[in-house]
Amino acid sequence: MKGRKRDIETYSTLLLSRKREIKEESQKLKTKVIELKNEAQFKKCRYEMMMSQMWKGGEDKDSDGSEAEGGGGRSEAYYIIKLAQEREYYRR
């Protein structure tokens, strides 16, 4: 009888320990989900800003302050290349 009681206590302790581990894992996953949602929201906003700039014709000056080629609005290819360059820059 005492042996069985000790086994139950040991198993109960094991289950409580496992429960704590699961709670910690759950909290880490919730934090990761929040981080990913925030990152997705940031990228969505950035994308929307870039698209609105692209369709408005953007600025007439490059980032270094020089006039854009042709003096007019920029083409869609310009923005695609610019986004690809920025993406590559942020990956490094």
Computed over alpha carbons, the radius of gyration is 28 Å
Number of domains: 2
Structural class: mainly alpha
Stretches where pLDDT is under 50 for at least 5 consecutive residues are: none
Biggest pleated-sheet summary: none
What's the shape? Answer: rod-shaped
The tally of beta strands, per DSSP, is 0
Task: Classify the helix fraction into a percent range.
Answer: over 70%
Whole-Å distance between the termini? 64 Å
Strand content: under 5%
Mean pLDDT: 81
Q: Please provide the ordered H/E string of secondary-structure elements.
A: HH
Number of helices: 2
Give a quick summary of the entry.
With 92 residues, the protein is mostly helical. The protein folds into 2 domains: 1-41; 57-92, no CATH class.
Structure in words:
The chain contains 2 helices and no strands. The protein folds into 2 domains: 1-41; 57-92, no CATH class. By secondary structure, the chain is mainly alpha-helical. It has helices at residues 2-56, 76-91.
